[in-house]
């Protein structure tokens, strides 16, 4: 959905940067998102552009935003409000023109009530909410998704597998897919292997 938003917008010729917010620990998140300058921490041997700078004039997709630590939420709130970032180890503001698209499978309102997600940050990122039902609630998408993944995996693998059998399609249609689209894709990748 995030990629489709990018592709259908006036920003489609600009960068589209994906970032999984749960992929790194708190100390690396800030550097990854905002960049750093040489010497700002052990291992910072050179200046490095962050994901926000890389997405300049385009879109940044923050997946699993519900996993962000409170300290990073505060910094992202500033980015949303002021349209500036600062690299780790530097206090020079860098203006950015980036659209943020975010996703989560968590209940952010519940996280707010638990104190693990900032309410002010929630209202800044929840401008145009799009709810994507789980795959088990949109079974009609399974066939088209399976076929699209099949074609991609066949090209990538170079195998001469002709198609998905009707029995397999029936099994796919009757399965609940708790892992959603990612699980469907992984199941096909597994089958190819």
Structure explained in plain terms:
It contains 9 helices and 7 strands. It has helices at residues 2-7, 26-34, 51-54, 70-82, 108-114, 119-125, 140-157, 166-174, 180-192, and strands spanning 16-20, 35-36, 48-49, 59-63, 84-85, 94-95, 99-102. The strands form 3 sheets. Strands 1-4-7 form a 3-stranded parallel β-sheet. The chain has a two-stranded antiparallel sheet with strand order 2-3. Strands 5-6 form a two-stranded antiparallel sheet.
Helix share of residues?
Answer: 40-55%
Order of helices and strands: HEHEEHEHEEEHHHHH
Distance between the termini: 28 Å
Strand order of the largest sheet: 1-4-7
Major sheet description: 3 strands, parallel
Shape: globular
* Percent range for β-strand residues: 5-15%
What's the helix count? 9
Gyration radius over CA: 20 Å
Count of strand segments: 7
Please identify the structural class as seen in this structure.
Answer: alpha/beta
If you average the pLDDT, what whole number results? 93
The parts where pLDDT drops under 50 for at least 5 residues are none
């Amino acid at each position: 959905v995030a990629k489709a938003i990018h592709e259908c917008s006036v920003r489609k010729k600009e960068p589209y940067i994906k970032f999984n917010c749960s992929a790194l620990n708190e100390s690396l998140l800030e550097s990854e998102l905002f960049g750093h300058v040489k010497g700002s921490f052990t291992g910072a041997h050179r200046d490095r552009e962050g994901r926000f700078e890389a997405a300049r004039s385009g879109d940044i997709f923050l997946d699993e935003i519900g996993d962000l630590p409170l300290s990073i939420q505060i910094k992202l709130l500033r980015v949303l409000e002021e349209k500036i970032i600062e690299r780790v180890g530097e206090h020079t503001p860098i203006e950015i023109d980036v659209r943020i698209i975010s996703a989560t499978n968590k209940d952010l309102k519940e996280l707010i009530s638990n104190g693990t997600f900032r309410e002010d940050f929630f209202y800044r990122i929840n401008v145009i909410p799009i709810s994507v039902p789980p795959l088990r609630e949109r079974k009609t998408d399974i066939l088209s998704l399976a076929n699209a993944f099949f074609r991609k995996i066949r090209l990538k693998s170079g195998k001469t597998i002709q198609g998905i059998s009707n029995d397999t399609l029936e099994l796919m249609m009757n399965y609940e897919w708790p892992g959603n689209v990612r699980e469907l894709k992984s199941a096909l990748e597994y089958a190819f292997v």
